[in-house]
Structures are given as C-alpha cells and as structure tokens.
C-alpha cells in the first residue's frame, strides 16, 4: 500500500485544503506532518524550494500545491472526460490563483488567513466581485452543479473550497450570487466532503 505524507502548516487550510478535499473524497489514507508557524524558520531549509505543502509518496517528494492536487485528481478520475474538459478544469483552478494574487496585492490575504478582523469586508467583496460575476454567469448557463461538463472535477472542489473560506471573512459574499452559493453549498454537501469539514481542526483560513 502506498504511504502518503502531507506536510503543511499546523492549523491552516491555505494551499493544502484542496489536496485534503481530494484525499477525503477519494478516501485515501494519509499522514499529516504539521509545522507550527512560529517554528517554520527552523524547518524551511529542509523543504525543496523552501515551501509547503509537500507530499511524500513512499519516500519520494512532490512539491507545489497544484501539482500535488492534480496528481490525486488524476488518480480519482477528476480531471474531466477529455483533454478539453481537463483544460477547462485547469482554467477554473487558475481563477483561484488569480483571486489569491489580487488579495495579496491588496494586502488582504494574510489578514484573512490570521483571522484578526483587520481585513475589510468591503475591500474583500470589491476584490472578489469580478470573479464572482464570471462564476455566476457561467453557472447560470450550466446544470449549476459542476463547473465543467456534467461531472465532478477537481476544479469544483478548488473553487468551492476557496470561495467558502473567503465567505468566512465576508458572510454576505454570495448575497448577489445565488447560483454560485448553490454550487458552493452543493460541493460541501457531498457526503465525504461534509464529513471531512465537520472533523477538520483548522483554526485559520
């Protein structure tokens, strides 16, 4: 049996959470190596690129969160029915990366991560609204349950997870985007995802 170890920060969802969603959905056993944030300077040099998450697979090491997530998505047949759908799924994953960049550039992301209340709901909403408008329009033209075709992909997990966590800082985030809210809620109602979320011990974003 393959042994998986996922290394990330203790108590933080961050870039490891999509990976955890995939592992939960696929019922894939794994061990977590959790690093307290305050101890990170002592561990950083031990990791390729000085970054986490890192996945160990029977002693081999894989870096970069999206590479790790895509690795499991392929194993679980969650990359789309064909090359076109796989590319579309990648494009939706790219939207997540775009939101992260925008929030970082506006000095909002770290405040949201630490949950210290200093991130303005109005500023967060303004930064995310263009992305939500595009998602809403897209979902209104589909079955409303999946971003790509009519089958679950890793993009559904990624987008639903990140926007759900964004809404922790802005509870009214979806007020003008009912199709997006329905989509996000549906993903979180999947039995294995619901079970994982109920048990997780994340303290910060």
TrEMBL record:
- Name one molecular function that GO assigns to this entry: glutathione transferase activity
Record has Transferase as a keyword? yes
Q: Which SUPFAM superfamilies match?
A: GST C-terminal domain-like, Thioredoxin-like
Q: Which UniProt keywords apply?
A: Transferase
| Highest taxon in the source lineage | Eukaryota
Q: Which PANTHER family match?
A: GLUTATHIONE S-TRANSFERASE, HEMATOPOIETIC PROSTAGLANDIN D SYNTHASE
What name is this protein filed under? glutathione transferase
Q: What is the lineage of its organism?
A: Eukaryota, Metazoa, Ecdysozoa, Nematoda, Chromadorea
């Amino acid at each position: 049996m393959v042994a998986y170890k996922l290394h990330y920060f203790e108590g933080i969802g961050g870039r490891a959470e999509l990976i955890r969603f995939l592992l939960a959905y696929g019922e894939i056993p794994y061990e977590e190596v959790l690093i307290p944030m305050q101890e990170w300077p002592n561990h950083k040099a031990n990791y390729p690129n000085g970054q986490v998450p890192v996945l160990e697979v029977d002693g081999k090491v894989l870096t970069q969160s999206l590479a790790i997530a895509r690795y499991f998505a392929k194993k679980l047949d969650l990359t789309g029915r064909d090359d076109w759908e796989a590319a579309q799924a990648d494009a939706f994953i790219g939207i997540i990366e775009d939101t992260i960049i925008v929030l970082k550039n506006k000095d909002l992301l770290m405040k949201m991560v630490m949950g210290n209340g200093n991130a303005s709901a109005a500023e967060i909403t303004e930064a995310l609204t263009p992305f939500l408008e595009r998602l809403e329009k897209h979902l209104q033209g589909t079955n409303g349950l999946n971003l790509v075709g009519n089958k679950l992909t890793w993009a559904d997990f990624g987008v639903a997870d990140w926007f759900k966590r964004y809404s922790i800082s802005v509870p009214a985030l979806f007020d003008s985007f009912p199709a997006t809210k329905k989509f996000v809620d549906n993903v979180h109602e999947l039995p294995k995802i619901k079970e994982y979320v109920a048990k997780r011990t994340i303290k910060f974003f």
